[in-house]
Amino acid sequence: MAIGQKLEEARNRKGISIREASESTKIRGDYLNSFESGNFDLKLPEVYLRGFIRVYARFLGIDPESAVSDLNIELGIKPNKTNRKNLGTIGSNESGENPRDIKKIQPEGNLSRNSSSLKLVLVLSGGGILLIILFSLILFAFSEGDNSNDATMAAATKSAEVRETLSQTQAITPVEASLIQPENRTLKLAAIGPIDRLIISDEGKSPKVFHEFKNIKTGWETTVPFTESFRCYSSSLENIRFAVDEGVEKQVSGEGAGNFRWNP
Q1: pTM above 0.70, yes or no
Q2: Pick from 3, 5, 24, 23: which is nearest to 13 by CA?
Q3: Distances (CA, A) of 173 to 169, 183, 241
Q4: Distance from C-alpha of 10 to C-alpha of 208, rounded to nearest angstrom
Q5: Which pLDDT belongs to residue 25?
Q6: Contact between 231 and 212 (Cβ < 8 Å)
Q7: Mean pLDDT per 10-residue run, the chain (264 residues)?
Q8: Distance CA 238, CA 240 (A)
Q9: How far is the C-alpha of 119 from the C-alpha of 100, rounded, in Å?
């Protein structure tokens, strides 16, 4: 089976489209279409072509080396065969050579030069990688600086907006201010008889604020601040009097222990 047909059938078995395969392998979709159609005349270097086939085959679950071998057949490239001497010939004296001299077939100098060239390539590659990393760090630092500047400008703009809002708020009328912030009031309490326990709850606060008094004697008076409204518990309702904002003193209806509430 041709390599293109193998690739197409493998992709269909996985149930994915050319576009999905292209996004996963990062290989252009038109290249993948050409591979599956058996068209390898893409004016690509053979090393790139083989690399693409390996990546695509591995993605589809096909043995990459087998896929490359099939590609070579498609391209008419014969595999390289290394001619090796017969072991009997190497050990024989038919040519008149001393078997001990066989190790001199490849000069040691060539091996040394090849090793030095490989080391040089590795050093240059490592240096190039370090330069790339350094350049990336410099770009990242400049990018962070730009972001910091952007954040500073945004904070300054926000601060200016807040100041502008506050300056406008200062010009609102008292009626508008009462709608924005709860009104603070005063509650005057007086005892015309003994009260064992008295609790005031500021209903306008969140959380609520409580004021508690115990063992109150006749003639006792106090003033308590509150917001908007309050609720009061007294162990003797008949002995408590109250006035709001220096208003007229009022008597609480009821006797014994109980609650009463005041709303504006």
Answers
A1: no
A2: 5
A3: 9, 14, 35
A4: 71
A5: 93
A6: no
A7: 91 95 94 92 89 94 93 79 40 44 46 60 71 75 52 54 48 49 80 94 88 94 92 93 90 90 87
A8: 6
A9: 31
Residue indicated by tokens 């005349």? 41
> Residue written as tokens 């190790």?
103
Residue found by looking up tokens 């050990």 in the block = 91
φ, ψ of residue 215 in degrees (nearest 5): 50, 55
SS3 content of the chain, % helix, strand, coil (to 5): 55, 20, 30
pLDDT for the residue 263: 86
Tokens matching residue 7? 């690739």
Neighbours of 50 (CB within 10 A): 17
71 close to 49: Cβ distance less than 8 angstroms = yes
Spatial contact of 216 and 191, defined as CB atoms under 8 Å apart: yes
Report which of 229, 248, 240 is spatially closest to residue 198, judged by C-alpha positions.
Answer: 240
Kindly state the tokens that stand for 43.
């004016």
Q: Judge whether 206 and 264 are in contact, CB under 8 Å.
A: no
Residue 67 neighbours by CB under 8 Å, 6+ apart: 3, 6, 7, 53, 54, 56, 57
Tokens representing 190 are: 């007086």
> Tokens 């969140």 — which residue?
206
What are the CA-CA distances from residue 63 to residues 26, 43, 58 (Å)? 19, 25, 6
The predicted structure's pLDDT at residue 110: 52
